[in-house]
Each structure stands twice: as C-alpha cells, then as structure tokens.
Design a protein that fits this description.
Elements: H1 13-20, H2 32-37, E1 45-49, E2 52-59, E3 67-70, E4 74-75, H3 82-98, E5 105-109, H4 113-119, E6 124-128, E7 134-138, H5 139-144, H6 151-163, E8 167-169, H7 176-188, H8 195-213, H9 215-218, E9 221-227, E10 230-240, E11 244-252, H10 259-270, E12 277-279, H11 287-295, E13 300-302, E14 304-309
Parallel strand pairs: 11-12
Antiparallel strand pairs: 1-2, 2-3, 2-4, 5-14, 6-14, 7-12, 7-13, 8-9, 9-10, 10-11
Helix pairs in contact: 3-4, 6-10, 7-8
C-alpha cells in the first residue's frame, strides 16, 4: 500500500535531493540514502503537492497493522510560506482520507513544529515521539574518546587494537557478495524465534543486498573492517545536510572484543572527520539500544513529534 504515485528510485535522486538538501531538517530519515535503504520496508512514496514535496511511509512495527503517515513536507527553496504550507498539508490530508486512512504526520523535528503550528494555528496536536528521537554526537568526541565518560569505550578499543591485526577498507559495490555473506552470518547468530522479528530481518536482508549493489550510485559513505581477510564489521552512512553524517547501519561480530568500538572509531576517522556531528539515529524504544546510544554521551537529541489534527476538516483551505 502506497499513498502517492511515485516510489524512491535512483533515477529520482537528483530531484529528491533538491528538496532534502535545501533545509537543515536534522532528522535522520530525511536523506536520500536513508529513504533508498528502507524504501521497501516502509513502502515510501512521494508526490509534489502544491509547493512542497510530500513523502508518505508505513509504520510496520506491528506486522498486522500497516499504518501510513506523512513526513513533514519538504521545501525546494529553503523557506516555508505559511499559507502554501497549510494548503499542502490539507491537500495531503484529503489524499490520505480518500484512500481510506486517517491522516497523521510523524518524524517531525522540533524546529519544524513552529512552522506547522504557524501555518495551521490551533488545528494541530503535537506529541513527543521519544523512541524516534535521534542521538547526535560531536564527531571529535567519537574519534578521540577522551575523558572519564569514554573510559570503558577506550579500554575496549585498546584491547581490540592490541589483540587483532585488521584492515580498514572502504566498502564498495564490488564487495557486495562478501558484505552480504557477513550480514547473513551476523543475522544467523541471532537465532530469532518470533515470526514478526524474523520477517523484519528478512526484509532488512533484502534491503541490504540491494544497497550493497548500489553503494556508489546512491551516495553512501562506507567502511569495513577485515580480520584474517574476512569482513567482520561494517558501517554505512550518508550525508544529512551540510554538517552531519548519519550512520544508517553498523554491525560487528561480537566474538571480537572491541570491534564495535573499532568500526565506530574508524568510520569517524575516515569518513566523518570533516563534519561536526554524527547522527546515530533513534533507539526505537528498545531498552538495550537506548542504553548503548546513551553510553556514547550524545551532544544532543533531535526531538521528533507525531502530529494530528484537532478537528476533522481543514476549514478555510478546501
């Protein structure tokens, strides 16, 4: 089920990046690299509605329920006009409702809530969506791991460096088969039994297989660590605005102590060293993941909100 007529494709990259790159959205999902990676899992679709680009997605965390939602509308010019923004939101709302779905926006970064409330004063309800808050770090902190806060991370990294000869390489599409073999072995060690979790894992594998074949065409930033000639860790990210790199995927074989710290550190040193911030995305409300992301001492969280209408109609904009 897709709300709009267009899908996320490599051919559409140039047009989509005009909108995605014109404004500092700061939210991890609002980059072409992220949209392309998860386009099938989240059934992304898009359309230019009025002056703005609208992207719809499906929240499929529950297998039985595909709940569509709208990203905040994207500007091509870097600016938002309140009247035109209101018209776009209301037209998108009608498109959702004609398709038989209730309208909502999700993943709306905090600094866009004023834009939306100014466009539709008194008509919207904003609710903080804590599981989708992004964790953002100072790049230099992740490179240097200085001070007491990073003592444990530094110890794990030093253990890895002193015990395992390794090679850090740029991951390319020519290495797709090797990278996919690592992903399949990584996932096999999870021994999942829940049917929904297994289905999501298979969907992720399909997404990664396509991503590995198209790393350069989509514009991913990549790194991998080889130990004894085999990939044992990899990281895939992308640009988010002018000052941030987002880490979309980071996986490491936990049989090697310190390997997660090593791939994180090497990726920052090689790929992200020229940007101020690293966005390591959300924790999805998973306690262990939240603990891990907090342990790296984020410089800030990008707050995101769910937005719904307080009244059924967009009066004055129909």
């Amino acid at each position: 089920m897709r709300i709009f007529k267009n899908e996320i494709t490599i051919e559409a990259r140039e047009l989509l990046e005009e909108f995605l790159g014109s404004f500092e959205y700061k939210a991890s999902g609002m980059s072409f690299t992220s949209l392309y990676m998860w386009r099938e899992i989240n059934k992304f679709s898009w359309e230019i509605v009025g002056d703005y680009l609208c992207i719809a997605a499906v929240n499929n965390l529950e297998m039985e329920m595909d709940i569509p939602f709208l990203f905040p509308p994207l500007t091509r010019t870097g600016a938002y006009d309140p009247r035109k923004l209101a018209e776009t939101v209301c037209e998108a709302k009608q498109i959702f409702e004609r398709a038989g779905y209730a309208f909502s926006m999700m993943l709306v970064p905090f600094h866009m809530t004023d834009l939306l409330s100014g466009a539709l004063p008194g008509k919207l309800r904003f609710e903080a969506d804590r599981p989708n808050f992004d964790y953002v770090y100072n790049t230099q902190d992740l490179i240097e791991l200085k001070g007491r806060d990073y003592h444990a991370k530094k110890n794990h990294l030093n253990y890895f460096l002193s015990h395992y000869p390794y090679e850090y390489v740029n991951l390319t599409s020519a290495m797709a088969g090797e990278a996919m073999a690592f992903i399949e072995a990584f996932n096999a060690r999870k021994n999942l039994t829940d049917p929904h979790e297994k289905e999501l894992l298979l969907m992720e594998e399909r997404a990664m297989r396509d991503v590995f074949r198209n790393l350069e065409l989509v514009g991913y930033l990549t790194g991998a660590i080889r130990i004894n000639g085999r990939i044992e860790a990899l990281s895939i990210g992308g640009r988010l605005g002018k000052k941030t790199v987002t880490v979309h995927v980071e996986k490491a074989n936990t049989e090697f102590r310190g390997l997660y710290q090593a791939i994180n550190n090497e990726f920052c040193r090689h790929v992200a060293k020229d940007v101020k911030r690293i966005n390591r995305e959300e924790d999805m409300g998973i306690p262990g993941l939240r603990k891990a992301k907090l342990s790296y001492k984020p410089a800030m969280l990008v707050e995101k909100y769910a937005v719904t209408f307080l009244e059924p109609l967009c009066r004055g904009f129909r």
